[in-house]
Amino acid sequence: MAGTNDRLVVSAATVLRFAPHIVFRFDDTRQRWVIMAPERLMLPDEQAVEILRLVDGKAGVAAIVDTLAARYTRAPRDVIAKDVTAMLQDLADKGCLATGSSDAGR
Description:
Layout: E1 16-18, E2 23-27, E3 32-37, E4 40-42, H1 46-52, H2 61-71, H3 77-93, E5 97-99
Antiparallel strand pairs: 1-5, 2-3, 3-4
């Protein structure tokens, strides 16, 4: 997890995974996807869920953007890239995302 002195900066080449203490899953009771952190529950909107389902510790942010641009052809790729990077940066700043392999944290 990035500390305040070593902030994870998300770029097109960054490969992200969920931090070890974060669980991203579909909650049957709520019938929606949730991000669970110690003493905290986040309810991502539909667009965030589409992005987060692509965070696997293998695909870089550019690959995630490419996948979304192929799905949503009406949106310009550069707009998708800007929005995806901003959302992932926000979650990285909150300690929900880290770089590296997807073997932990899922």
